[in-house]
């Protein structure tokens, strides 16, 4: 069915969104004395992303003396990432973080190129670079304000319940869930898997019922979504991470006075920095926890090389299609390498 704002809504979450939409829109465009920043994402309340947004709520309300009030909605309460991104685009929500950042700027896909970075230091250099700031600023053309971009929960790991993945051949034919992002679809195909796009909120059921064989996600998501209950093997290769832009409705941001904008941006930058810190510190802990529930395989550098070779055409394809340039890819590689 379709909500009153033309947003497709499905299932019980869709019904909930339809019920909440009128309440969410009350006060949109309110005068400065009563700005309300309504925010939603799909991770549960205990996730590092959610904890960083609890910080954002507390700090922004305190530093603006209540001139901006924050309402956080976690655990996909308002729908899928697709639905929440659409709500930000239409002003029903004022902010989100998640996998649909290409709506804000397609160039964000550059940060997801397989094996672009290999560790947290490289990833941190990239998201805090001048290149990242240019990509953030260009989102204004599409109606979004991006005050800061971090790292999306860490490096992705493959899981499945069919066999351990130690070579690309082990992925051949596996029905693997991927986020609804084309670069991950193409990466999965390059590695011989059969990719299936699916919202994270539907993943547990699909794995439990055998509709899918496996998936890939950061370790924090694998733990927080309890995917270890329905998966047997996990392979750590650090094959990809992604950006975590703080996506804000530009109309809301521009309705703020200059002093509120400055405070908003400062708190948003600190929030993303905290999120990155929490994710970095907890990644090994999450992997250790998962190791008590699953068979965890850590690939050595020489084992990773065949995966890297097979995925090299992915970046070239996106360059050919104009999503980013060869110059931007080389710039990103130079930044990651410390040049």
Give the topology:
Elements: H1 11-25, E1 35-40, H2 48-63, E2 68-73, H3 81-90, E3 95-96, H4 120-127, H5 130-138, E4 144-145, E5 149-151, E6 157-160, E7 175-178, H6 182-190, E8 194-197, H7 203-208, E9 214-217, H8 219-224, E10 233-236, E11 243-245, E12 247-249, H9 250-254, H10 258-291, E13 295-298, H11 301-320, H12 326-336
Parallel strand pairs: 1-2, 1-3, 7-8, 7-9, 10-13
Antiparallel strand pairs: 3-12, 4-12, 5-11, 6-9, 6-10
Widest sheet: strand ordering: 8-7-9-6-10-13
Counting helices, strands and paired strands, the structural category is: alpha/beta
Rg for CA atoms = 20 Å
- Determine the mean pLDDT: 91
Q: Helix share of residues?
A: 40-55%
Largest sheet: 6 strands, mixed
Shape type: globular
The total beta strand count reads 13
Q: N-to-C terminal Cα separation, in Å?
A: 51 Å
Q: Provide the succession of SSEs.
A: HEHEHEHHEEEEHEHEHEEEHHEHH
Beta-strand content bin: 5-15%
Task: Describe the structure in your own words.
- This protein is an alpha/beta fold.
- It is 44% helix and 14% strand.
- The protein is built from twelve helices and 13 strands.
- The strands form three sheets. The protein has a six-stranded mixed beta sheet with strand order 8-7-9-6-10-13, with helices on both faces. The protein has a five-stranded mixed beta sheet with strand order 2-1-3-12-4, sandwiched between helices.
- α6 (182-190) crosses α11.
- The radius of gyration is 20 Å and the shape is globular.
- Residues 1-19 and 27-32 have low confidence and may be disordered.
């Amino acid at each position: 069915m379709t909500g009153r704002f033309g947003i497709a809504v499905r299932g019980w979450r869709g019904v909930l969104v339809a019920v909440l939409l009128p309440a969410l829109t009350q006060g949109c465009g309110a005068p400065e004395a009563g700005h309300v920043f309504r925010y939603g994402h799909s991770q549960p309340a205990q996730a590092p992303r959610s904890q960083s947004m609890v910080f954002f709520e507390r700090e922004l309300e305190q530093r603006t003396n209540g001139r901006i009030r924050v309402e956080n909605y976690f655990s996909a309460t308002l729908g899928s990432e697709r639905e929440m991104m659409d709500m930000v685009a239409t002003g029903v929500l004022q902010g989100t973080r998640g996998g649909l950042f290409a709506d804000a700027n397609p160039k964000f896909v550059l940060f997801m190129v397989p094996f672009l970075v290999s560790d947290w230091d490289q990833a941190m250099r990239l998201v805090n670079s001048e290149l990242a700031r240019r990509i953030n600023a260009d989102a204004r053309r599409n109606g979004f304000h991006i005050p800061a971009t971090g790292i999306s929960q860490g490096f992705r790991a493959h899981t499945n319940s069919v066999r351990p993945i130690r070579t690309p051949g082990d992925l051949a034919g596996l029905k693997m869930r991927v986020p609804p992002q084309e670069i991950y679809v193409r990466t999965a195909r390059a590695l011989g898997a059969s990719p299936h796009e699916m919202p994270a909120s539907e993943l547990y059921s699909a794995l439990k019922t055998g509709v899918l064989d496996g998936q890939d996600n950061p370790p924090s998501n694998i733990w927080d979504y309890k995917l270890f209950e329905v998966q047997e093997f996990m392979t750590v290769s650090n094959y990809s991470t992604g950006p975590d832009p703080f996506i804000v409705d530009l109309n809301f941001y521009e309705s703020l006075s200059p002093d509120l904008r400055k405070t908003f941006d400062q708190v948003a930058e600190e929030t993303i920095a905290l999120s990155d810190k929490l994710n970095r510190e907890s990644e090994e802990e999450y992997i250790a926890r998962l190791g008590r529930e699953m068979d965890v395989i850590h690939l050595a550098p020489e084992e990773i090389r065949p995966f890297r070779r097979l995925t090299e055409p992915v970046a070239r394809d996106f360059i050919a299609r104009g999503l980013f340039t060869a110059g931007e890819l080389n710039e990103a590689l130079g930044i990651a390498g410390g040049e």
